[in-house]
User: Fold these one by one.
Assistant:
Number 1:
Amino acid sequence: MSTPRIVNGIARYEHGSRVPGWDEAADLTKDPAGVPDPAVVEVPADLRLEIESYMARYPDSRSAAIPALKAAQQRYGWCSPEAIEQAACVMRLTPGYLAAVAGFYDQLETRPVGRRPVYVCTNISCSLRGADALLAALQDELGDAPDVNLRGFECLGACDIAPMVSVEGVYVGPVDADEIPELARQIRAGDEPLPAKQLINRPSQDPDASAA
Ligand code: FES
C-alpha cells in the first residue's frame, strides 16, 4: 500500500482518494491456485460448520462468500492466506475468488490489524464538520493501542450525526472536539463509547415509534 501524501492538509493516496483502495496487481508469475484439497487443508470444525450454515442459506452457495470471510476473519483477526484457504476449501472455491471478494470490501481486512475496528467517517458531511481533525486527534490518542484498528472510512450512512465514529459497530456522533479524550479512554478500556451520543439511543422522529 502506498503512503498517503498531505494535500491541502488532507492525506491523499497516489490515486487521489483519501482511502487506500485496492491497488495491488496480481502476481502474474505465479500459477493460479486451485480449489484447496480437503484432504490436505485442515479447517477447524466450528469454522467449517459456520461457513456451511451460511452456504445453506442461498440457492447459490457462492453468495455466502462475505459471511464466510467474515467468520474466517473473526477467527484469525484478518483475511490471512490461511483464513482464505480454509474458507475456500469449505466453499469449494479457489482462494483467488475469495481474495478478490476480501479485497473489494472495506470491512474485510487483507492485512494484519487490531481486532477492534474503530472507523471515523471522512466522507463529505462528516468532513465538512471536522472529521479529518477528529481522525487525527483519535490517532494521536490511540496510535499505540495494538488491538484497535483505527482508520478513516467512507460514508457510514449516518450523515445526520456528522462527524461520527463507529466503535466496533456502535455509532456515535456528533462527536465534539472536547469529547475526544473521553471517547479515546472509553475505546481503550472497552467501555461504552459516549452513551449519550449513540445513534441507538436517539429517540425516533416518529412520535408513534417513540411512544412504543
Ligand atoms: S458522510 Fe459521514 S456518515 Fe455519511
Note: The chain has two domains: 31-104, 116-201.
Number 2:
Amino acid sequence: MRFTVLTLFPEMFSPLQASILKRAQAAGLIQVNVVNFREYADNKHKSVDDVPYGGGAGMVLKPDPLFAALRALPEPHGSRQVILLSPQGQVFDQALARALACEDELVFICGHYEGFDERIRALADQELSLGDFVLTGGELAASVMIDAVARLVPGVLGQSESLKEESHGDGVLEYPQYTRPVEFEGQRVPEILLSGHHANIERWRRKEALWRTFQKRPDLFERTVFLASDYPLLEELRQEHPEMEVFAEKWRALAPLPKKRRGREPEQGNNPA
Ligand SMILES: C[S@@+](CC[C@H](N)C(=O)[O-])C[C@H]1O[C@@H](n2cnc3c(N)ncnc32)[C@H](O)[C@@H]1O
C-alpha cells in the first residue's frame, strides 16, 4: 500500500521512519512518499500562501501549488483516495482506518497556517479530522492516520492475532493484560490467567472487556453489538454492578429461549376418570 503526503514540512514525517513502519517499508509492504508542494509554486519566491480576501488574520494556502503537486503524482496503480486534513472533517476512527486499509493508495493533503483556499476542497475525496481540536498543521494528523491504517495492512504486524482482540476491534476495549512478575508491589496477576484453562481465560477476558468498556467508554458500550455468548457475562456483570441495569434492555433480546418440554403435556379436563 502506498501513502503519499503533500506537505510544506516533510521533516515532520520522521516518526514514520522508525520501528514497525520502518520495517514494513523495508519489506516493501508499504511505501511512504512525502512531497513538498512548495516545489510546485510557480513564482520566484516559491510562496504558497497569501492573505485572505475580505481581510482577517493569518495566511491562507493558495490553490495552484497543491493542484500542480497532485496532478504531478504518478498514475495510481489501483484505487486511490485523496484525503484533506481538516478540523471540519469527519472524525477519524478505527472503522475508517479499516475502510482506508482496503485502498491501494492514500494521498493526504496537509493544510497549515490559517487554513486553505476553499477551492482546494475540490481535490479531495474526503475530509478527515483527527478530533475536535485545532492543530497547527495537518502533518501530525496525517502521521497518526498513516500509522493506524498501515498496521492493518496484512503482514505489517507480525502476529495478526494481536489485531483480532485489540481495543475497537469489535466495538469493545481490550481486556487487561499482565506479564511477569506474578506479583509487583503488592498487586498480583489474577489467578485465572495463571490457571492454564483456556476456555475460562477467554470467558474472563471477554467479561473484563465488556466491563471495562462500560466503565471507561459508556458511549461505545451503548453502540456495541453484543454476541449471543455475551448474554451470561452481561447478566453476571449486571448483578455485580447494578449501575449496568440502565443498559440491560440492550442485551435482553439475547436471552436464550426457554427449553421446550419433552413429551406431551398431560391432557386436562376431558379425561375419563
Ligand atoms: C490552524 S489549522 C486551520 C484551522 C482553520 N482556520 C479552521 O478553523 O477550520 C491549519 C491546518 O491544520 C490542519 N488541522 C488542524 N486541526 C486538525 C484536525 N483536528 N484534524 C486534522 N487536521 C487538522 C488542517 O490541515 C488545517 O488546514
Note: DSSP finds ten helices and nine strands in the chain.
Number 3:
Amino acid sequence: MGSVSTIVGDFLPGLPGSHPQYWRALTAACDQAEPPFGQAGYGELFRREAMDLDWLARLLILNAQKEADGSRQLWAFAGRIADPDCREQVRAHAVDESRHASFYISLLQLAFPQSFTPEEVEALHGISPGFKAGDAVDLTDPSDDDLVLDELIQMNIGEIRTLINQLLMRPVLSLVCPDQNAARLLRLFDSLSNDEVRHIAYTADLIESRGKAERTAELMRLRLDEFSDITRRELGGAQIEAAFD
Ligand SMILES: [Fe+2]
Ligand SMILES: [Fe+2]
C-alpha cells in the first residue's frame, strides 16, 4: 500500500496530466500530511482486526449502511446543484452507491453463507435506499458554487478512502470465503472498485472544470486533514470499524 496520491495515480495514470490543478492540490495536501489511510500501519491494523471473523461480518454490514447513508446524502446534494450536467452525474452516483449497499450484503452472504438465514439476508438488503437509474431528482435549494466545490472535494476524498478500504478487504475476504463463492466475490469487488475509481475520476473532473486552483488547494488541504483526524479518532477508539467503512 503506497501513499494516497500514489494509489490514485496507479488507478488513474492519466489524471496528473489531464487534471493539473486537482492533482497539485491532492499531492500538496498529502505531502504536507499523509493521511493515515495511506500509511502502511493502517493496512496492518486492518489485517490484525480482520482475524476476528465476527468483526469482518459486522464490517460488511456497516459498509452497507455507510453506502446507503452516502447514497441518500448524494441524492439530497444533487437537489442543490443548479448545473443540470453536474446534477445528473451526482444523481447517477447516488444510484451507484444505493446499489453498493446491496453489494456489501451480497459479499456478506458469499463470505459467510452459513451465518445468515435467507430472511435475515433479505432484511439486510433493505438497508439500501433502492434508488433506480430512472428515478428523477428535483432541484430544490441551489447552493452557491463554492459550496458545491467543497462538497465535491469531500466526496472525492471519501471515494479515495473507500477504494483503499476495498483494496484491504478484497484479499482477506477472498481467503475467508468458501471456494465455490470466491470467483463471484472477487467479481463483486472488481465491480465495486471500478465504480469507486469512476467516482474519483468524475469528481476530479468537476473539481478541475471549476478552474479555481487556489480555492481547490485550500479546501483539499482542509478537508483531507479533517478526514485524517476523523480516521485517527476512529482508529483510536471503540469506533474502529467505522475507520474501515
Ligand atoms: Fe460505493
Ligand atoms: Fe463511490
Note: The chain has a mean pLDDT of 94.
Number 4:
Amino acid sequence: MKNSLFTQFLRKPFMTGAICPSSPELAKMLVSGVGIETAGNIAELGPGTGAVTATILQTMPENGKFFAVELNSDVLAELQNRFPQLRVYNDSAAHLGKLIQQENMESLDLVVSGLPWAIFPPPLQDEILQAIYDSLAPGGYFTTFAYLQGVLMPNGMSFRKRLSRMFSVVEKSPIVWRNVPPAFVYRCRK
Ligand SMILES: C[S@@+](CC[C@H](N)C(=O)[O-])C[C@H]1O[C@@H](n2cnc3c(N)ncnc32)[C@H](O)[C@@H]1O
C-alpha cells in the first residue's frame, strides 16, 4: 500500500497523474498494432508500479532488449521486486537520448509511455516528445494513452496537436471503457 499508485498520487500528484494503475485491457491496447512482436529495442517511460511493464515483458520477443525510465524514486523498489530482470533508470524521460547510449543502442523500435501528458506544461511535452522522436528508428512506434476527460483540458488538446505535427502517422484506438478512468491509445509512427 505504501507505494501504491494511489499513495503516490496523494504524495506527488503532478508527477503521478493517476489514482489507479492501468487495467490489463488498456495495457493490451497500448502494445497492440505497434510491432512489439518483432521490436528489437524497447523502452517504457513512466512504468509506475508496473501495470504495463508486465504486458510488455509477456509480448516482446525473447531476444529483444528492454529498459524503463521512472522519475519517482519511491516506486523503484517495488518495480525491481516485481521484475528483477528489468533495467530501470531513475531519471526523466527527457533524457532518453543519453539513456539509449548507456544501453549501447543506436535507436529504439518502440517507445511505450505511461506518462501523464495532460498535466505536463507544453514546454515539458515538447522536450520529452523531441527526445522520443530523436530516439526512434525510422518507422519506429511511439504508443501512449490519454484519459478521456483529459483530452478536453488545454494541455491534452495541445498534446494531440503536437503528435500530429511531429509523427507521420497518428492513430487513435477505440476507447477502453473498462479502464478507470476510461482511456484510449495514440499510436504514432515516425
Ligand atoms: C499515470 S502514472 C502511470 C503508471 C503505469 N505506467 C500505469 O499505466 O499504471 C505516470 C508515471 O509516470 C512517472 N513520470 C512522471 N513524469 C516522468 C518523467 N518526466 N520521466 C519519467 N517518468 C515520469 C510518474 O512517476 C508515474 O509513475
Note: The pocket of S-adenosylmethionine is lined by residues 15-18, 21-22, 45-48, 51-52, 69-72, 75, 92-93, 114-116 (CB under 6 Å).
